Amino acid sequence: MIRWKGLLFLLVLAGLVVGASYIFTDQWLENLIESNASNINGAKVEIDNLDFSFAGPDVTWDRLQVANPQQTMQNVIETGRCEFKLEFWPLLSKKFIIENFQLAGLQTNTERETDGALPKVPEAQKDPNIIEKTAKNLEREIAANPNLMLSTYSRKVNVDSLIRILDIQSVDNIDSLQDSIQSGYTQWEQRLSQKNIQQKLEKLESKIRSLQLEDLQTVQGFKSTLNEVEEIQTSIDSMSKVVQNTKNDLLTDLQDMRSGLTQIDNWVKQDYKRAMAKAQLPDINAQNIGRFVFGQKVISETQKYLGYISTAREYADVLRKDDAKNPRPPRFEGQDIHYYKRTAEPRLWIKNVELSGQTANKIQIRGNVKDIVSDQQLINAMTVIEIVGDGESGADLSIDGTLNYLEDIPQEKFQIQYAGFSLAQSNISNSPFLPYEIDHGSGVVETSLEFTGQQVNAAIQFVGNHLEFNYGSEASPANRFEQIVQTIVKGIQQIDFVARIKGEPNALQFTLNSNLDDIFADQLKSILSQEVQQARQRIQQEIDSQVKKYESKLNSLIEQREQQLRSEVEKYEKDLEAAVNLAEKKKQEIENRIQEEIDSQKNQLEDKLRENLDNLFK
Amino acid sequence: MLILKFLAKLVKILRSGISPNQIAGGFILGMIIGLTPIMSLHNMIIFVLIILLRVNIASAIFGFALFSGIAYLLDPYFHNIGYYVLTQVPSLESLWTDLYNTPILALSNFNNTVVMGSLLVSIVLLIPVFFLMKVSIIQYRKNIEDRMNQWKIVKAFKGTTVYSIYERVRNGYRKFRSLGD
Fold first, then answer.
1. Contact A93 B53 (CB under 8 A)
2. Mean pLDDT of all residues belonging to chain A
3. Within 10 Å of residue B113's Cβ, how many Cβ atoms?
4. Following CA atoms A575, A577, A579, A582 in sequence, which dihedral angle do they give, to the nearest 10 degrees?
5. Are A90 and B104 inside 8 Å of each other by CB?
6. Mean per-residue pLDDT for A264-287?
7. A interface toward B at CB cutoff 8 Å?
8. DSSP 8-state secondary structure symbol assigned to residue A374
9. Given a cut of 90, is residue A513 above it in pLDDT?
10. B52 in A contact zone (CB under 8 Å)
11. What is the Cα A202 distance to its own chain's centre?
């Protein structure tokens, strides 16, 4: 049943395999780690002299380089000798548990000898995650910086040439208004003359005067004359109504025409505004110069940290259970399904990383990173980062962070303090407001960064003390703006700013407040304000003087024509009143005459009766 | 040309004079390796069994070659079967969880959909293929072999120098093997 030669063959084969693994495992493992890590990083990861020992099993290497995917001739990190021991039994369950990882000689941003780029493979388009969206939207925030119109500071204000090209539209507007008012007055004159009020009144008066009472003999005659007078009175009444209505309409129209004058002030204001825009006089208010000066740098640094957090969150997601069916896995590869037991160990768990090294700024760092794990819920602990460092010049660095993926909502928190570092030979801004390199000075940076789900809350505080700037070898500034900036910067010994980033990626608030805002505003005000103020005044005076001429001409026209029309209407009123009085007088006269006539006839009748009576008794 | 080679290999095995059980046994072990992804823990065991047990190695190789081609075509179905068994059967979830967290068994890649699917299929096919193969060998030897020897092309081939050299080598090899046994 058993092929004994086969057993011998198997023993020989096993011996060869064991021998080969002693010889080739190191190289094979090195290639495997380099390949997988490079795919994760997006750029080359290279290990020098990896040594795997079956005894521990232990792994050591002499050097690790992790290339920067954005700058492939630079390493993000480089380490010296590293060693760690893998726990044996979990390996048989494909679990990598490392008790203590010694990482020495850590350096950041080191130069590479060869290009760390990987061969280009077309990547599947993937949606940016929340942190990548935040980084992108921060770029938009800084692109929306107000244009501080720096060119306006670089030249003196030439008011004379500006006045020559002033485009004062108020004058034309006043002319047009005048024409319109003139035509209004002309229309009224025509209207009044068309009504013929004067002629009608004269006619009525002459009619009244033509009534001669001496020619009347009888009461009847007087009564008919009285009727005539009453008719005339009725006509006078209706004329009076016409005159009243006409007067009301006139007054209303005059009011409307006058109201056009109130537009003149607005026209003048617009002319002034146009002139200011043409002059481009600097607006000397605190315009958040600090944001303009520091915004780009703050956002670049923040984006860098966001990049690290994005990677951490991405791979925390990848290492977690994901059993959604892959519909078309590659041939013969299938899909791995993972099963999690609450009491089981995670697939990857580095319990403690002891690191030491130095940063690009020669700060010697040391610290621990605890619990780098594929699934924090299995160990019920979050990843904790504690790093401290100190530099030769007395600089202190401390980085404390936590990556918390225990709950459904992931959370990352970092507190970074970097104090006492030298600012010598550094540019803290590339903006034209602060283009100078620093000769001496020290800085303090405190950063807190918190990412909870989609919410970001970051604050970055910087203080630069005892600052002295290097203004370069040129004798004098190239233009007036540089001269002004140099004057202001010479007086600056401390610069501070506080930047805050808050909100969700699609509704991000970025604010940056700096003492430079007030320093520049105050200094610019004192340097430029007198000049600017004089320029403003001259422009205002020029506009006012030109407009005033036309405005006063218009006002006197209005006064004159209004007066004319009012006088005419008043004359009509007077004539009306006279006509009314005349008619009334005539009426009274007639009534008196009627009464006299009646009395006379009554007396005559009485006398006749008396006489007749006397005759009766003779 | 490849098909002719294949057929020649098959005929050679069938006419080898080895017992049908040995041929069929080797064939099904080769089938398992052919159907499942080759770098799996169970295939190491199968490989050891092929070496240790008195099964026909040539038929194992033949079975591996034949079913590798079939596995390529059936890979998507193995993935579907494996995914169903691993995720859609709640009563098995605790078993898989325990196996996943058990040393050595976790190395078997049983939690891979293609491994699981193909292994299940090969287990199901084990007995039927064994008996089918055995019956085929017996029938070939009983009914077909003599008739084939009468074919003109076979007769012509046996008259060639190549065949005579082959026969000498084969007889010599058999003598050598019999010495070892």
1. no
2. 83
3. 25
4. -130
5. no
6. 75
7. 1-3, 5-7, 9-10, 89-90, 92-95, 323, 325, 328-329, 331-341, 344-345
8. S
9. no
10. yes
11. 74
> B76: Cβ–Cβ under 8 A, 6 or more apart, which residues?
A328
User: Closest Cα to residue A417, out of A438, A371, A386?
Assistant: A386
Chain B residues with CB under 8 Å of A7 CB are 51-52
pLDDT tens-digit map of A239-273:
889 889 999 999 999 998 888 888 888 988 888 88
Rounded to a whole number of angstroms, the distance from the CA of A97 to the nearest CA of chain B is 13
> What pLDDT score does B32 carry?
96
CB–CB of A477/A484 below 8 Å? Answer: no
8 A C-beta contact, residue A10 and residue B62: no
**Containing H/E element for A357?**
strand A348-358
- End-to-end distance of chain B based on CA atoms, in angstroms? 36
In this complex, the residue of B83, B102, B180 whose CB is nearest that of residue A335 is B83
Strand partners, A513: A498
Whether pLDDT at A515 is above 70: yes
Distances (CA, A) of A358 to A104, A107, A112, A364, A417: 10, 5, 17, 4, 16
In the block, tokens 């290497």 appear at A61
What whole-number percentage of chain B has pLDDT above 70?
Answer: 73
Q: Identify the burial level of A8 via C-beta atoms within 10 angstroms of its C-beta, where 0-12 means exposed, 13-18 middle and 19 or more buried.
A: exposed
Distance from CA of A46 to the nearest CA of B (A): 27
- Cα A297 to Cα A433: distance, rounded to the nearest angstrom: 14
Cβ–Cβ of A9/B51 closer than 8 Å? yes
CA distance A375 to A382: 9
CA distances, A151 to each of A155, A322, A480, A529, B11 (Å): 7, 57, 10, 17, 94
Residue pair A170/A264 in contact (Cβ under 8 Å)? The answer is yes
**Residues on chain A touching B93 (C-beta within 8 angstroms):** 339
Chain A to chain B, count of Cβ pairs less than 8 Å apart? 89
Question: In the numeric block, which tokens belong to residue A457?
Answer: 């809350």
Neighbour count for residue A32 (Cβ, 10 Å): 11
Asked whether the beta carbons of residue B113 and residue A335 sit closer than 8 angstroms, the reply is yes
Q: What residues in B contact A94, CB-CB < 8 Å?
A: 106-107
Residue A23 has what pLDDT? Answer: 84
In three-state secondary structure terms, A600 is helix
Q: ipTM for the complex?
A: 0.74
Chain A residues touching residue B96 (CB < 8 angstroms): 337, 339
Whether the CB-CB separation of A399 and A367 falls below 8 Å is answered with: yes
Secondary structure (H, E, C), A283-310: CCCCCCHHHHHHHHHHHHHHHHHHHHHH
SS3 category, A383: strand
Q: Position A334: which residue type?
A: G
Strand partners, B108: none
Distance from CA of A18 to the nearest CA of B (A): 15
A96-111 and A348-358 beta bridge pairing: parallel
Q: Please tell me which of the candidates A1, A89, A94 has its beta carbon nearest to residue B54.
A: A1
d(CA A20, CA A16): 6
Cβ atoms within 10 A of the Cβ of B110, count?
Answer: 20
User: Do the Cβ atoms of B111 and A338 come within 8 Å?
Assistant: yes
Distance from CA of A96 to the nearest CA of B (A): 12
Q: Rounded mean pLDDT of A373-392?
A: 90
Dihedral of the alpha carbons of A13, A14, A20, A22, in degrees to the nearest 10: -160
- Round to whole Å and give the CA distance between B19 and B17: 6
Residue A612, token pair as written in the block: 């007749």
